[in-house]
Specification:
This protein has 253 residues and is mostly helical. It has 8 helices and 3 strands. The protein binds nickel (II) ion.
């Protein structure tokens, strides 16, 4: 069930049976020469929308711009300041809690978002404890609970990615994530020869330094290995894991 394809009476009826919602969260940033700029937002969105269709989990619109400052030397990247992202996450959450949602499962697609997402959770919890949160101040409603899950760390998924790509998985613009997007959007596949075949690895200091060290945007990966078939397998495993984990989160005392 997708929030943006539902009517308000449908969402109201959903709230009668569940107070939990899933929000895909990602980034709009360069993903190497054959990866889509939307990769980190599309991966959690593709997994979540299928999980929502299969299981009836309510899936919110994707929070699709995040922490991408270090990718800003590449065309098309869009980034938020951490304070802006935290403020926007608070506004989304406050809107949802106003309607009665109490559990928010954030399915993340971008490692660079993790610190900021956790900082946003701290702000939310701080708000509940010290100054009221939304219209819950002083009420005896159970407090809001948020959880963060990186899709590539879902049970069984990392192992499957390593099996599919024992060589060339790397750290950024990985064949696994590119495969997931090619499965979701086969028409957007790009055939690009990689030079070198596997990208170098190393530290990053800022956007210009990133581009100097990793001129085509990849780190340690060979995303020319990406395929629709591999993406189908990864998405299948991730959908199963998300449904099971979300339902446990929704039901936990
Ligand atoms: Ni990525």
């Amino acid at each position: 069930m997708q929030l943006h394809l539902s009517s308000w009476p449908e969402v109201q009826a959903y709230l009668e049976r569940s107070k939990a919602i899933l929000i895909p969260i990602g980034s709009t940033e360069q993903h190497g020469p054959n990866g889509l700029l939307g990769t980190d937002a599309l991966c959690p969105e593709i997994i979540a929308s299928r999980a929502g269709d299969e299981s009836g989990i309510l899936v919110a619109p994707t929070f699709n711009v995040g922490q991408a400052q270090h990718h800003m030397a590449f065309a098309g990247t869009i980034t938020l300041r951490p304070s802006t992202m935290i403020a926007a996450m608070l506004d989304w959450t406050q809107s949802l809690t106003r309607h009665g949602f109490e559990r928010i499962y954030w399915l993340n697609g971008h490692g660079g978002n993790i610190n900021t997402i956790n900082a946003a959770f701290s702000e939310m919890y701080h708000g509940i404890t010290f100054s009221g949160f939304g219209d819950r101040s002083g009420s005896n409603h159970p407090p809001l609970r948020c959880t963060l899950r990186n899709w590539w760390e879902l049970p069984g998924v990392g192992e499957l990615c390593r099996q599919l790509f024992p060589v060339g998985e790397g750290h950024h613009a990985t064949p696994s994530e590119v495969s997931v997007t090619y499965f979701g959007y086969p028409q957007a596949q790009k055939s690009v020869a990689m030079t070198p075949k596997i990208a170098p690895v190393g530290p990053i200091f800022d956007a210009e330094d990133y581009r100097r060290r990793f001129p085509d945007g990849r780190i340690g990966s060979d995303p020319s290995l990406a395929s629709v078939e591999a993406g189908a397998k990864i998405v299948g495993a991730a959908v199963k894991a998300v449904i099971s984990e979300f339902n446990q989160f929704a039901a936990a005392a």
